[in-house]
Amino acid sequence: MNKISAARWFLRLGLAFVFTYAAIEVYLNPDAFLKYVPDFVQNILPVNSFLPIFGAFEVFLVLWLLSPWLVRYAALVAFAMMIGIVFSNFEYFSVLFRNVAIGFAALALAVLEWKDS
User: Fold this and answer.
1) Which residue among 60, 71, 98, 109 has the highest number of C-beta atoms inside a 10 angstrom radius?
2) pLDDT in tens, 26-49
3) 3, 5, 1, 117: which is closest to 71 by C-alpha?
4) Euclidean distance between the first and the last CA atom of the chain, given in angstroms as a whole number
5) What residue segments make up the domains of the chain, in order of their start?
């Protein structure tokens, strides 16, 4: 395995860990996530319904990141999620600033996975 392939796997595993942990926490400790659900989401769907759906999507994203199928798009979805979480909860930036690094790790993975045409 060359360095680029190893870097891809480390990024995929790191992102998968982050989303797995978050998905598990959403089910075990949903109260910790309530304040991060933006008002516009709560206007569409009750927060107690949204969190399990979001957790299930995170599990889907983990499986997608670990599969060989279009990883660059999974990474772009992960990037969009992280940046979306930060911008829709900017008042909590002192906690969510880490999501910026996670988002850019996902973007780096997308760049590494992009096939030159």
Assistant:
1) 109
2) 999 999 999 999 999 999 999 999
3) 5
4) 23
5) 3-113
d(CA 49, CA 62): 21
Spatial neighbors of 77 by CB under 8 A, at least 6 apart, are 61, 64
User: Taking the model in full, what pTM does it have?
Assistant: 0.93
Vertex 46: Cα angle to 37 and 65 (nearest 5): 55
Please list, in sequence order, all residues whose beta carbon lies within 8 angstroms of the beta carbon of residue 82, skipping any fewer than 6 positions away.
99, 100, 102, 103, 106
102 contacts 15 by C-beta, under 8 angstroms? yes
Q: At 113, list the tokens.
A: 């996975």
